[in-house]
Amino acid sequence: MSDNLITFANVSRFYGEVLGINKVNLSIPPGITSLVGPNGSGKTTLMNLMTGLIRPSQGEITVLGIAPDDPERLCRAVGYCSQFDAFPKGITGYQFIYSFLRMYGMSHEECDRRTMASLQMVGLMEARNRPVGAYSKGMRQRVRLGQATAHDPQVLVLDEPLNGLDPLARAEAIALFQSWGKAGRHVIVSSHILHEVDRISDQVILLSHGYVVAEGQIQSVRGEVKDQPMQILVRCDHPNALAARLFEQNHVVEAKLHTDGHGLLLRTTDADSFYLLLNRIVMDTGLEVESVAPADDDVNSVYQYLIGGEGGTI
Amino acid sequence: MSTLHLRQIGAVLRLELKKTFFSRRGWWVYLLALGPLGITMLHWLVEVTRHMGRHSIGEDSLVFAALFHFYYLRLGIFFGCVGIFSNLFRGEMLEKTLHYYYLTPVRRELLVAGKYLAGLATALILWCGSTALAFLTIGRHFGAAYTDYIMHGPGLGQLGSYVLVAALACVGYGAVFLMSGLLFRNPMIPAAVVMVWENINPFLPTLLKKISVIFYLKNLCPVEIPIPPPFNVMVIEADPTPFWIAVPGLLMVALILLGYAGLSARHTEISYGE
Q1: Is B38 a member of any domain?
Q2: C-beta neighbour count of A285 within 10 angstroms
Q3: How confident is the model over B151-161, as pLDDT tens digits?
Q4: Alpha-carbon distance A288 to A246, whole Å?
């Protein structure tokens, strides 16, 4: 058990006879961790478990060394912005954040200061005295984000936090998550917007049908997917010549010329051998290479390889 | 109990009061509380426009006793408490807002206490207020005689007793319905069961009579109202419980129920049936 990790040890959760998650073993370090998977894959179950809203049918969970059935300690360390788009009736944005902050035992002045800072952070200062029920979807999402972070938690759990946000608010939210991640906190995000997950994640956890399909840094997860040839994009001055030399090797299974005539997208079953070969070709032929970059070590590609169409909608 | 715990209960209480008072969902509870007040006001208005002396203050106090026994205790306060206390948890589950409380570092038992106190404050203001105002207006048409009855006769004592019984009813039924709101998806089912049980109380054997709220409350009322014929033949008489047992006993039962509700709250999961 570590005081700096979120751990799941053989955790299963069933809803009657329906499987939520099954035999999950995880050890989540600080930074931004994205939960990726289709609807019903167990993302929200995992989040509800680590915030103590539900209990595991079996197995053990610790969040920074705290058991989720100890709300007095856990809820000081954790902030959860859930997917439930509901609010206590008749309260304003200010009252919403302030009232729940008071439950941490802080004084009025401290709660007021934190509430105002939180409202400022999510850009709702002007709307703070309006009832939350009259907010737009994006504003409601922002006020929930403000409420979840107002007590300055070490672990921030965000279920689809970018839903309903306009592009500017989305960029601001992402910048906020990144600053939290860089500060050494845990930011656990579930999102179906894969290219944004890709941009912000330090590590990903891929879920399907209640099982963890893969976890870790996305590049290393991609490296583990051996049955799918790696896609690499090479930008150079003579892609035709490069393609001809590359096809002499067995591990290069496909090559496509880029439409601008200065790039070659190829698929190889052995990336390490490919890079060695490319070095040799460059030395032999004097080929001018502008860039070499993997083209499918992103979340979207890995998701398609590991979960693909059988996983349902994302 | 530490300062932190008191602050946390205070925070829950404040938020709940904000939500419980003047909530649109509870309009019918206000109607239940204001109903008898409307009747006594009407009675006052009718009597002042008619010839005086048709009946006595004693008769009016009997009418009020019947109103208190059959309306307040068996209907108004009972269903008022169903409306107020059942919704403290069940209403939040239906509206999908309970998780906000469950994500704060408040012990579940304190959450139950805070919510109960908020419900109790609302119920006490409504029902003790309604009882007192109805009592004060029912004989208002007697003018100075009624003031004298209250200030120098048995009126003030009766008023105190009725208000105390109304308060104890809120305490007892409040605890019952807060717990049922936590344990049952549809709190109207346990409410119906409890209502039937409370209403057949006069006809139950002595031992079973004592497992109810109404038995103790009835004994504390200053004026007894007998069950009318033909049902009176089925009534089984039981010795009244002394005041010093009835009041602490009711408070103790409420505390036990709240303790159980606290344990249930600790084991409650937030999934909103999804």
Answers
A1: yes
A2: 12
A3: 988 889 999 99
A4: 15
User: For position A52, what pLDDT does the model report?
Assistant: 94
Minimum Cα–Cα distance from A87: chain B residue: B97
* Integer Cα distance of A151 and A171 in angstroms: 23
Query: Does the pLDDT of residue A157 top 60, yes or no?
Result: yes
Considering only CA atoms, which of A206, A143, A155, A131 is closest in space to residue A52?
A155
Q: For residues B88 and B178, is the Cβ–Cβ distance under 8 A? A: yes
Contacts of B18 in chain A (CB under 8 A): 90-91, 95, 99
Residue B203: DSSP 8-state? G
- Enumerate chain B positions whose Cβ falls within 8 A of a Cβ in A: 3-4, 7-8, 10-12, 14-15, 18-19, 23-25, 95-97, 99-108, 269-272
Structure tokens at B175: 């605890």
Position B232 in a domain: yes
Separation in Å, CA of B146 to nearest CA in chain A: 43
DSSP A101-147: HHTTT--HHHHHHHHHHHHHHTT-STTTTSBGGGS-HHHHHHHHHHH
Which chain B residue is nearest to residue A50, measuring alpha carbons?
B103
Each residue of B128-150: pLDDT tens digit? 999 999 999 988 888 888 899 88
Question: N- to C-terminal Cα distance for chain B?
Answer: 36
| Residue numbers of the domain that contains B167 | 3-267
Q: Is residue B272 part of a domain?
A: no
Which residue of chain A has the CA closest to B105? A72
**CATH dotted code for A6-223:** 3.40.50.300
Q: Do A80 and B272 touch (CB under 8 A)?
A: no
Fold of A229-295: Alpha-Beta Plaits (3.30.70)
Contact B104 A95 (CB under 8 A): no
DSSP labels, B52-75: S-SS-HHHHHHHHHHIIIIIIIII
Helices B243-267 and B108-123 pack at an angle, to 10 degrees, of: 130
- Whether B51 shows a pLDDT value over 70: the answer reads no
The residue ranges of every structural domain in chain A are 6-223, 229-295
Q: Using an 8 Å Cβ cutoff, are B226 and B232 in contact?
A: yes
> A-B interface: how many C-beta pairs under 8 angstroms?
92
Spell out which residues of chain A touch residue B100, defining contact as CB-CB under 8 Å: 88, 100, 147
**Number of domains chain B contains:** 1
In a domain, B254, yes or no: yes
A14 shares contact with chain B (CB less than 8 Å): no
DSSP letter for A8, please: E
| CB atoms B270 and A54 under 8 Å | yes
Q: Is the CB of A102 less than 8 angstroms away from the CB of B14?
A: yes
Element (H, E) at A156: strand A155-159
> What integer is the mean pLDDT of A67-80?
94
The predicted-structure confidence for A26-35, as pLDDT tens digits, reads as follows 999 999 999 9
* Residues whose CB is less than 8 angstroms from the CB of residue A159 and which lie 6 or more positions away in sequence, other chains included: A43, A44, A47, A80, A81, A82, A83, A190
* Weakest-pLDDT range from B109-118, B160-169, B177-186: B177-186
